[in-house]
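G., the chain you wanted modeled:
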Amino acid sequence: MNGPGPQKTGANWPRPVPLVGDTTSAAQRARQPEAWGFPEDEKEAFYRVIEARRDVRRFRPDPIPQALLERVLGAAHAAPSVGHSQPWRFIVVSEAASREQAALVAERERLRQARLLTEEAGRKLMDIQLEGIREAPLGLVVCCDRRAPAKGVLGRATFPDTDLWSCACAIENLWLAARAEGLGLGWVTLFPPEELRALVGLPDGVETLGWLCLGWPDERLPLPGLERAGWSRRVDLATVVLSERWPGAGPPPPPSALRSPGQAAVVGARDRADQLLTAPGSLGALDKALDRLGSLGLSTIAGGTLVVVAADHPVWHHGVSTYPQATTREVLEATVAGESFGAATARAAGLAVKAVDAGVQGGPVPGTAECRPPGRRGDLANEDALELTDVAALLEAGRRLGAASPARLLALGEVGMANTTVAAAVTAALLHLTAEETVGLGASGDSATLRRKREVVAAALRRAGELPGPMEVLAALGGPELAVLAGVVLGAAGRGAGVVLDGLATSVAALCAVRLEPGAAGGLIAGQRSREKAHPAVLDALGLEPLLDLRLRAGEGIGATLSCQLLATGLRARSLAGKVGP
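Predicted structure as tokens:
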């Protein structure tokens, strides 16, 4: 029986090279970031084509060879399109009757537009040839097939008109290819859209971007036609390039010293991962989280800490929780003793535990860091949850906790009977959602509890109205533990530490922190997606993909600590895995 083969311990392994797609490695790209460029003479020719592109209006009648037509149409079809939707359609029109009808519509529309201008401008317009529909051997009617629902096309859910922009990119590709081949192209929009649609029989849901005249040019313009005719001139580049914000757009956001990891750190973490003997991104969401830790300089979670913040809430008296209010104190005391389920999970993951009392009923809990609000607290439905000054103080106390912790990785947890109601209300206010969209069952809830929670949150949202920012949202609808947790996120981010989030409450606290200082987002990792209804919306707002989806309702940071174990394994595996050769 044969024994094991020779081992390559300590050697460099060859990087696996895919047979399709990008065959370069991060090391190659780092050595020559400019290597994707074309030779200088080809770049020069490209820029000359751009500079020489013209809107041609006069054409020779000579036909365009079919192979050349397909070549320039192929350039149009190679254009970028949002979501790779390729919504463009080009109807090639060569029949004389159709071109004559189109020319008549364009001439009529030019007369109409001239009458809308001043007398001098209208006369000037009539002296300028604006189309060559009769002369050009071919017309191309540019169409955009918009029948696919916007939400079904990647990138169109936020900008629904990106399909039209994609078609404009295709026109530009066609225009540049035509110029390189010596063809002329003119874009004619002197058509009422419905008449051009009828001319080529477009169905509902397909729109036109105009008519393109294509043929050999009977003019070779040194300048754009309208510029040469004195209609307008090209403005200087400096007048169209703006820096950071639109001039006069109001005061910029307050300056912040808090920054996400820099570009070099982010790319460096990805470069190191590319040295492993595995396909880049093979661990999916875990790889992204590990790269994020790498950008923070973390190669292990050793020395990490679970921060558990607890508070009770007056809204509990509205019957929105299925557990006695005293449970909050009991769990926090057990956390201090190291005997709560959250503390035990943290210990199993190799994490220390920091317990924080942010306002538990019955007086301060011994053994905790004390961050209790001194001011009046309300029940959300009838009065504000916290005074604004208390929110500021709690936020600052949390910031100090996050900044003072020696841990490079913090897992966040919380304890508080009724705090899923509070977290749902804060989520609804921050994301402009309704109680129906944010309120879930909570731990061990039933249909009656759910109804009461929705009624309370709806009443709280009506009472609070539109709120200007996260500080005001926390004051009107939040809880002290959310304010402290938001501060912990800011404090940790300020010293470049990573933060692993647990359920809805810790995540919405992190969202408040990011709304206050966007740089805090760079160190966040979503440990899990809980069963709370609002949690996915909050994770989406943070741009985070959760590592675990176990339908947890536990709180106490349990989901975050379980994810820390996964992160620890991933980091350890990366350190043990074979490295590829240079």
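The longest strand covers residues 206-215.

Shout if anything looks off.
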